[in-house]
Amino acid sequence: MKRALRGTVLPILLLAAWESASHAHLVDPRILPPLELVAHTAVYQVTDEGLLRNLAASLLRDMAGFTLGTLAGIAIGTILGLSRIADRLFMPSFNGLRQIAILAWVPLISIWFGVGEAAKIVFIMAAALIPVVLNTYEGMRGASTQLVEVARTLTFTRWQLVTRLYLPSALPSIATGVHLALIYAWVANVGSEYFMTIGPGIGGLIIAGRERFQMDLVMLGILILGLVGFLINRGASAIEARLLRWRPV
Amino acid sequence: MRAAAIPAPAWPAMPPGVIAVLFPLGLLALWSVSARFGWFPPQILPSPTEVGTALLDLARNGDLARNSGISLLRVVEGFTAGSFLGLLLGIAMGLSPKTEDYVKPLFTAFAQVPTLGWIPFLMLLVGIGEPLKILVIAKAAFVPVTLNTLAGIRAVPSIYVEVGALFRFSRWQLLRKVVLPAAIPPIFTGLRYGLTHAWNALVAVELLASAEGLGYLLVWGRQMFWLDTMMGAMVIIGIVGFTFDRIMAVIESRLQRWRLA
Hints:
The structure holds 2 protein chains of 2 kinds.
Chain A: H1 2-23, H2 35-48, H3 51-82, H4 84-97, H5 106-113, H6 117-141, H7 145-153, H8 158-195, H9 202-211, H10 215-243
Helix pairs in contact in A: 2-10, 3-4, 3-6, 3-8, 5-6, 6-8, 8-9, 8-10, 9-10
Chain B: H1 16-36, H2 48-60, H3 63-95, H4 97-112, H5 115-126, H6 130-154, H7 158-166, H8 171-208, H9 214-224, H10 227-256
């Protein structure tokens, strides 16, 4: 309890300093809007400007890109992890391509796929794909040799070998990749809203706030961004822990 | 080493390096053929030669060196500032659980918002000049360095500290001679992540607000519909990122060597 209290000291001091600086006009209120203005903007955004619709648009797009990227990532990672030929042929190229900072793809994607929703989803998908491929690949390669020998003795077919042995034993590693993909996809979603057409979404809200010099709007956007990221992360951890309960530690 | 694999048909005896380039070479060939027959207009997919020429032009007229230099300088400045602060905060929190109690929640909230989210905020705060770039890059490096420094110090085995106490080391000696050396490998891992994050942040901030640098080359190529310039800039961004990571990885593995198994 004492520890939790300590943790609130700095944030309260910060907020108090902010509030008083704003009211005493020590700082331009356009730069540092008082807290009640941010709260007011939040209410106004929800009631009159469709903040929830923006949030839903962001989340929906995020989920679409994340799902596509994860599925593709598991498929690619499985193939690369299990086939020596595919590994030798494609893995070096994949490792080369992923050196390019993900945001550097935005201009190219926007030329190839336009600047609409499709391009945004392609970009989010690419961001989600990379960690899933890498972790699936690692997981497949980490399967126990002894188990594979047992499966051989039991004359598993190739399909059985993949579905009954490799996939289950790679599951913890895949889960790590999917968890990372959730985080990356959310960041990529914001990036896609910044750089492609400003449509509905939280990133669009922040950019609009910046263009109109409305710090309260920017702050509100940042708050939502952090909160959603936090909830996604928490949710993923909980699901991961539950799904992997069976694993002997 | 491959621990377990589905038996694959025997691959002809070719060194892995040769096999690795087969796919890019095939892709390059397909790309050349497509450019040759005009399957895609050059505004969508310029030929490999055009990309090469664009890169050579950029190199020859000095644009490449100038813009890379600017980007590198920004990363070095931002990374140095961010990782220095991260080391300080990480060490402070690592040594004193009390400090951690006070600072960690605020730090976590700050770290929770992705760097990309802070950029518009900082733009309103400090404008779009050089300080913006340094701040954004510093933030990107600061978070992983702090977290890894904290974790690294906490992971120092207590027997080391006990031995130090046996020698009647002062607090300062304990820190200098025992805790910090033992924590260096994980701290360095944090620095490595920090540099990667810093490089990504540089690309982000240069795409959003810059009139020079590698990220700006991308924006510029995008506006002019010069895909060859854009692709050239992407290649350079990839190579620089890769080189940074390799250098850090080599130092990291050196530092790991002396560790007890």
